[in-house]
Amino acid sequence: MGALSHLKVLDLSRVLAGPWASQMLADLGAEVIKVEKPGSGDDTRHWGPPWLRDTGGTETREAAYYLCTNRNKKSLTVDFTRPAGQEIVRRLAAEADVVVENFKAGGLAAYGLDYAGLRAVNPRIIYCSITGFGQNGPYAARAGYDFLIQGMGGLMSLTGRADGEPGAGPQKVGVALTDILTGLHAAVAILAALAHRERTGEGQHIDLALLDVQVACLANQAMNYLVSGQAPRRMGNAHPNIVPYQDFPTADGDMILAVGNDAQFARLCAVAGHPEWASDARFATNAARVEHRTALIPLLRQVTVTRSTDDWIAALEAAGVPCGPINDLARVFADPQVAARGMRVDLPHPLAGSVPQVASPLRLSATPVEYRNAPPLLGADTDAVLTALGYANEAIAALRREGVV
After folding, report:
1. Which of 326, 351, 372 is the last residue of a domain?
2. Is 381 a catalytic residue?
3. What's the CATH number where 322 sits?
4. Is residue 14 part of a domain?
5. Which of 155, 197, 271, 400 is deepest in the core (most CB within 10 A)?
6. pLDDT band per the 50, 70, 90 thresholds, residue 333
7. Could you tell me if 71 and 371 are in contact, meaning their C-beta atoms sit under 8 angstroms apart?
8. pTM greater than 0.70
């Protein structure tokens, strides 16, 4: 029994941030009912290729994007722009503990499915709204997408090669990181609201904005600006506060050095054959290395190119110097540590036989994550969910004929 197996979540969200949050809750045992538009479903079902292939090798049109964030859920198709569909959602909300939605601010009010509308049928409901810019402010009505928010929220100003270097310019992160971080914050907020409800019996509304999350997650870079008044600039793979902490070329590729203190730097110098660097006043402390990075980095690069990546990593790990390769995803999933931690799991799938999944990183000793079912086919659980709500077979058939489900 998962830690959240006593909870029911009504998931009105789509794409990534909301489904990421609801998948976390589902992994921890919650029953999550994913409400999708009849005929098309979640937008990400169509965001391919790549597509999952069935047991005969034919593409199924189940997009890998959709498969990354919808396991352990039930799929119910409902057109809630219609009164009969709204009634289904209200009946689900009456039994639910949590609602997750990511429509534009005020977008569900027209259907009576906003917080006020669902609170009327269930005062204990935890209602989490995820938008680009929040429920108030001059941008509240705007649509928000991860790429847009990475730019507006400052992340792209910090990501990419420095001005003057080949290929200089702002870059987005290679995954939709703002969406992922927003999903994580949503899950934390939902758990906090549930803890509050346990003590008081009160539900509440959670107003979560991608832009807020992105600004909050600028972390040390935000504080560097707020303390100094100087906006940090792109530095490629270098670190603004730690040196050496970046990529270095080797004889057959590249590696990462992540030297976090002066003792580690001294050990690096010894392995590199230049112990004198550790006592050089320009490099002896991290603050000095930050000041003199333009002198130190070229010296290190002249040395790192003399040995292969594997040779460097073996020598540096033996000396206790944090380092590592820059792996592509094939090497990531072949890595013995990743394999030992079980970061790939395979779940039975009705079309493909099985579908690969990236495991949850949550490791709980008493209530471990359970992988109950693969991301569902569109509408796979419609009949079962409606039957559990008390709809008779004839009523379900009529809803289907009318295109409500």
Report:
1. 326
2. no
3. 3.30.1540.10
4. yes
5. 155
6. very high
7. yes
8. yes
